[in-house]
Amino acid sequence: RRARTAGESLVFYAPELNARAADAMALESRLRRAIDQQEFVLYYQPKVTLADRRICGVEALMRWMEPGQGMVPPGQFIPVLEECGLIGEVGQWALKKALHDQSEWRNAGLHAPRVAVNVSPLQLRRPDFADDIVALVARSSSNELELEITESVIMDNVERNIDALGMVRAAGVSVAVDDFGTGYCSLSYIAKLPVTSLKIDRAFIVGMSSGPEGMAIVSSIIALAHALKLKVVAEGVETEEQARLLHLLRCDEAQGYLFCRPVPAETITALLQRDMPLPME
Ligand code: C2E
Ligand code: MG
Ligand code: MG
Ligand code: MG
């Protein structure tokens, strides 16, 4: 077909675009209903200290339990919540809920782990982001809240984020750089970021088995983190060999299906009561 004019191509693509717009609108109204009906749930995935494999933290991972649809993973609805301006509300709910669950573990006399909540780009960009977090922590009895922010999101408008994260840190909140290694963090900035840990992206953990280069990348990230006095956490650890190598390389903490999948809060309660190394037999 010969080159089309703009008008022709609009006609050509219009039906498809309309179908997609209709889908998006339907999803948006389902999400609004989900907020009203409280269909969002926090699952938690343990982080373990590699030295003893005991739970040192948990990461809150959101799920959408839509009646008749089963469990919808966050990749399918978080971006939509962002697009329609609903992420602020749901994100605030997740922070409160995670702090609430942590206080329940403490009230049950358990050793309540540090609780990490993922922060989306739009949440971080809001002018009162830091003030809201500081107020939330001041009102809660929590001692250990951690925010996980992906490297690419921190690097987008990095100067501003350094200020906001500095305020959050001053309130005693930890900050982890999530998916580290995938976001082109310039080395001149990494030392200036007011963060407490780096989470090595799962892709690099997978890459460790592919040969010496893969190992070199992971051991360099670990050395970089330690040189900057940051803790380093491996995500997506699925095999015993990966866990053993990471421990040999002096990685501090790890998270992944090998130890435990994301589970409901009650399962975390049971694991804390049991107080044993992971994985469970
Ligand atoms: P993330 O923060 O990097 O979370 C890690 C993802 O890897 C989770 O997927 C987790 O279930 C999965 N995972 C953990 N261990 C393993 C493993 O051993 N192997 C493999 N293949 N995967 C593993 P999930 O729960 O689908 O979450 C995906 C992403 O959605 C998260 O990536 C995070 O960026 C985002 N997300 C989740 N909950 C929230 C939330 O409450 N707020 C915001 N803004 N984002 C969230
Ligand atoms: Mg995360
Ligand atoms: Mg991650
Ligand atoms: Mg990830």
User: Structural class of the secondary structure composition?
Assistant: alpha/beta
In one word, what is the shape?
Answer: globular
Strand element count? 10
- Ligands: ligand C2E, magnesium ion
- Can you give the helix content as a percent range? 40-55%
- Proportion in β-strands: 15-25%
Number of helices: 12
Strand order of the largest sheet: 1-2-4-5-6-7-8-9
Distance between the termini: 63 Å
Overall average pLDDT: 91
Order of helices and strands: HEEEHHEHHEHHEHEHHEHEEH
Query: In angstroms, what is the radius of gyration?
Result: 21 Å
Biggest sheet architecture: 8 strands, mixed, barrel
Low-confidence stretches: 1-11
GO molecular function, one term: kinase activity
Protein name: EAL domain-containing protein
Keywords: Kinase, Phosphoprotein, Transferase
Domain EAL: 24-276
